[in-house]
C-alpha cells in the first residue's frame, strides 16, 4: 500500500486489465484482503484507519477499529473478531465478514504471534494424502551433465526416485545419490513420497534434454522478448512446444520473416530437414506461408528447397506442424532457414490488418 500505490498516472503496479485490482487497495486499507482469486477467505493485514464502518446489504454493519502503540502501525500485535482471536493464521471467511461484527486490531512496532495448530508427528502420518515431490534443476537443457535435486515438504515420509533415458551406455547412465540425480544424457526423473506403509504421494515427472554442444545458431531476425523460449539457442535446444504458445517452448516473431543459420559443428549426412511451427489464429499466430531451407558445407555454395503446407488460415484452435523437406540425402554443415510470415491478419479476423506472428520451436534434422 505504501510503496506500490499513489495518486499519479503510474500509481498502480500494472493496470486494471492485466491482473492489477485497485479494489485490493481498498480492502487492504480496511485491514484484510483476499488470499487468492475465487477463494472466499481473507487474510488480515494492517488497516490505515482508526475506525471504519461498512454498511452491509443485510442491514448489519462490519466495523473495523484499531489502536496503535505510540503511533506505530507497522505490525499486528493482536487481532480480535467480536472480542476473540480469529481462526488459524488470522484468516476470516467471506460469510463471517458479511454477517457483520467488529474486527479490532492492536498495532505496534513488533508483530504478535498468530494462532496456529500444533500437529503431532503421529497425526501428520495418519492425516490426508502424502505430498508431491519437488524436482528442481538449473535448466531443462544441458550440454555436458546436469544435477537435479529432489525434495519434499518436511514430514515423516521418504522420497522414492526413478530415472529413465532414451539410450543406455553404462558409464553415461543417470547417477542417483540420496536426493540428487546427475544426468549425462537426455532423460526423465520421477519422484514420489512414501510413508513406508505402502502409501504413496502423487508422482512428479520432469524431462531434461541434452543438446549437441557443437551446434550453434545465428539469428538474423529478432524475437519478441516475452516469447524468447529461453533465449538465442531456443531453435536448437531440443525442447518441443505443444498446442499452447504460452508454455515457454515457442519463440515468437511478429510482423517479419524469420531467418537463422545453424552450424552443425561438423559435416554430417542429412536425410531431410524440418521446422516445428505453430498456428493459433485467435492469437494472431499462423504457420509460415512457406519455409526455405538452404544447406552448405562451406557457407559459400548453397543448395535450397522450399516447403509449403495446406493448412488454411481460418483453421481454428492451436495446432503444431512439422514442415519437412523431401529427402535430400546430402553431407551438410550449415543450414539456413527462412520462414515466411503469412502476412497481416486476414479480412474477417478480429485483428484484421494487424501484424501477425510466426512461432517456431525447433530446427529438425533427419539423419536416418
Explain how this protein is built:
- This protein is mostly beta strands.
- It contains three helices and 24 strands.
- The strands form six sheets. Strands 16-18-23-20-21 form a five-stranded antiparallel β-sheet, with no helix packed on it.
- The protein is extended.
Helix content: under 10%
Rg calc: 29 Å
Distance between the termini: 61 Å
Which shape, going by the Cα principal axes?
Answer: extended
The share of residues in extended strands comes to: 35-45%
Structural category: mainly beta
Can you summarize this structure?
The protein is mainly beta and 368 residues long. It has 3 helices and 24 strands. A hairpin with a 2-residue loop joins strand 12 and strand 13 (180-183).
Write the topology of this structure.
Elements: H1 22-30, E1 32-34, E2 41-44, E3 51-55, E4 61-68, E5 75-81, E6 91-93, H2 94-98, E7 101-108, H3 121-126, E8 134-136, E9 141-142, E10 146-151, E11 158-165, E12 175-177, E13 180-183, E14 187-194, E15 204-210, E16 216-219, E17 251-254, E18 258-270, E19 272-279, E20 291-296, E21 303-307, E22 319-324, E23 330-339, E24 357-366
Parallel strand pairs: 4-7, 9-15
Antiparallel strand pairs: 1-2, 2-6, 3-4, 5-7, 8-10, 10-13, 11-14, 12-13, 14-15, 16-18, 17-24, 18-23, 19-22, 19-24, 20-21, 20-23
Key attributes of the depicted protein:
mainly beta, 5-stranded antiparallel sheet, 3 helices, 5% helix
